[in-house]
Amino acid sequence: MRYQITGKQIDIGEALQSHVKTELGATIEKYSGRPTDANVIFSKSGHEFVCEAVVHLSTGLNCTAKAHANEIYAALDACVEKMDKQLRRYKRRLKDHHKERTTPVELFGASSYILAGNAEAEDPAEPDTLQPIIVAEMETQIPSLSVGEAVMQMELAGAPVLVFRNDKKDGVNVVYRRDDGNIGWIDP
């Protein structure tokens, strides 16, 4: 498995990198036999250290965890604990469905845009033009998943919404977390 361990304005020493590889590696090996790579980022927010980890599994799913603590090693341990909990739930769901995905998730390219908001405007009146201002343009990937896998991927990533291509109907669908805690599914 490939590790990318970085720090945002923090010096990451060899001891911490070694600790990340042993702790995160042991957790991932327990639940996933074929992880491809892990990206771990350390940063500082006020007086606390923040650890963010993203693990890419060979099935195409991503697992994301984020934790913060007063010490950098404690932040890593809390992040690994969250990752362990997510992977354990993911593995249990795969066993409950009695089918494990044998082929990797197919990904389709798409464009992603960030549009400028009008929140800072002093006059909240109607803008001069109704065309939004594009701040950034990026490439993104849309996975081809079943609805159950999409919900699982959304929960693993900790995202409020996931756009995916439905395996069964071959169309673009959306799953999202509702305000009442339930999951919504848009199937056009």
TrEMBL record:
Residues 131-184 form the Sigma 54 modulation/S30EA ribosomal protein C-terminal domain. It is found in: Cytoplasm. GO terms for biological process: negative regulation of translational elongation. CDD domains: RaiA. The keyword Cytoplasm applies. GO terms for cellular component: cytosolic small ribosomal subunit. One of its GO terms (molecular function) is ribosomal small subunit binding. Keywords: Cytoplasm, Translation regulation. The keyword Cytoplasm applies. Interacts with 100S ribosomes. Required for dimerization of active 70S ribosomes into 100S ribosomes in stationary phase; 100S ribosomes are translationally inactive and sometimes present during exponential growth. NCBIfam families: yfiA. Belongs to the HPF/YfiA ribosome-associated protein family. Long HPF subfamily. HAMAP family: HPF. This is Ribosome hibernation promoting factor. The gene is hpf.
